[in-house]
Design a protein that fits this description.
This protein has about 180 residues and is α+β, with helices and mostly antiparallel strands. The chain has helices at about 55-70, 75-90, 130-145, 150-165, and strands at about 5, 10-15, 15-20, 25-30, 30-35, 40-45, 50-55, 100-105, 110, 120, 125-130, 175-180.
Amino acid sequence: MEKIHATTVVAIRHNGQLSIGADGQATLGNTVVKGHVKKVRKLMDGKVLCGFAGSTADAFTLLERFDEKLTTYNGNMKRAAIELAKDWRTDRYLRKLEAMMIVVNKDELLLISGTGDVIEPDNDILSIGSGSMYAQSAAAALKKHATHLSAPEMVKESLTIAADICIYTNHNFIIETVSI
């Protein structure tokens, strides 16, 4: 049985803002099954934002585990991310989950993967999902050549470019921002 998956999530830190956004498409194989999935969530009363890509059930399982780790470590996002990555890599059940997450707060921008990676980007841009390379390329160009844009504007434009190219990405965006 095929899993529901595919998306594009991008996060950008620029000019005192950190924004994360995702499209709303869920696919089953090569069929769109839903167009308005909310793949960006607020945690810790909006202090932490999370975007996820991959199998829907797997992503929600990881989101719940990450939220538990945030509570356990009193909102210390980096520590929660590292502990989740450790569990994800070593736990027999979690190891089978097929998803990735980007988590952000006012200070940090992190990618968490099932291989135990917690990555902090050098260029203040992260992306995951089927359209991630399109969105990341667009974001890099915007940060370099359109510095007058705000972080949410850059996220929207990056997702728009990805949606114009990637068949697994649509134009129904959810974008959230935290001030730095």
